[in-house]
Request: fold
Amino acid sequence: MRSLSRKICSGLAIALVPALIAACGDGGSSESQTTVGGAPVSIGVIGAYSGFAASTSGGGAKAASAWAESVNASGGLAGRPVKLIIKDVGSAATSGGIMAAKELINQDHVLAIIDQDVQDSKWVKIAEEAKVPVIAATTGQGSLISANTFPVIPSTIALGYGIFASAKQLGSTFGFIYASEVASAINMDMYKGFAKAAGVSMPVVIAVSAASPDYTAVCQQLIDAKVDSYEVGGAAAMVEKVAQQCHQQGLKAPLVLPGAGFAEHWLTEPAFNNAMVEDIVPSASNAILPAQKEYRQALEKYESDFVGQPTDNSFAETGWTSGKMIEVGVGKIEGELTPAKLQSALHTVKDETLDGLVHPTTYKAGQITTNPCWFNWKIVDGKAVPVNDSKPVCAPTEVIQPVIEKLQKALGG
Reply:
C-alpha cells in the first residue's frame, strides 16, 4: 500500500510542483526577532528549504518570517510577540521531519506548526497526538490522514485533476511530456481518468530525458497532433527548454503550468505567452487583491532581498497564508493561548477566504479537510491576467473523492 501512496503523490508532485518530489533531511533552525513585549508565542515551521527542492520551495520560510514580523509590528498575537522557529528538513527522504516535529512540540512548546514539508505524512500524527495544530501549506499527504491538519492550499488530488480542467479551458486535446527519469512515479491511469472526466483527450504522452539537449521530435509530435495545450512534467529547467524549443519550431499551443513553481521571468518569455496557470493562490505574479498587496508590501519591508528571487513564488506565499489562518484561530480564543484551544478554535472556522487568498474554507472537528479548489490565471503579453475574476475553481467531488479514499487507505489513514 505504501508504494501506491508514493506513486500517486510523487507523480502529482512531478507534474504539479516538480522540485517538491521529496523533503525530509536534517536541518537547522532560525528564529525571527520580536518587536513587542510579553511572553512570546512560538510558532514552528517545517519545510524543505535547502537541497534540490529549494529551487521551488526555498522561499516559504521567508514569507512566514515576513508574516511574523508584520504581526509583531502590529501588536503580536493576542498582544504577545511571535517567535518563529524554522526547521529546514532539507530535500532528502530521511526522518528529519519527525525529529523537527518532536523538537517543536516537546522542547519549543509551539502553539502551531506551519507545514511546508511534502513528506508530512511521516509526522502529522505526532502533532495530532499532542493536539498541536498543523497548518498545511504543502502538496504532501498529511492533510489526507489527520483531522488535526488545517490545509490552506488545494489537495494534491484536486491539483492533479485541475491540470486537465485548466487544459479544457484552452481546448479538448492535450499533450503531456514528462521526464523519463521519474517515469516510475507517474500514475498514468489516474491521469487518464482525470483527463476523461475533464473532457480532454491526450493524443501525445511522451517520456523523455530531462537531460536531453534536443526536443525536436517531441515538439513535432505535439504539432502533428494539433494539441490545444500541453504540459511539461519536470523541473523548471526542462519546462523552459522544451517550451522554448517547441516555440521556435512553430508550436502554437500554449502551456498549462503549475503555479507553485512558476518562474517570474516566464511572464515575458514568448514561449510562455497565453499559458494557463493552475495555482494555489489567486496570482503569485500580480498583487491583484488587497490581501495580496498586503503580503507583497510586507515582503518589501521585512524581506526585501527576497523580493524578485526565483523562489519568490506562490509556494512561498503559502507561508504567509498559513500565518493568516493562525491569526483567524487566535482571534476566536478567550484567555490563555494553548495548542488545544487553537485546535478547537480552528475547528469552528467556516467559509473563511482570508480576503480571497483561499477558497471558502471550513474545518470541522473529527473530519479530514481536503480542499478541492484552485485558482487559474493566464500569461497575456507579459502580464498575469486573472481568470474567473480570481475566484477559485473546484474539482467535482465524484471525480476526486474515490482517488482520495484510495490514497487514504494506502496511507493507513
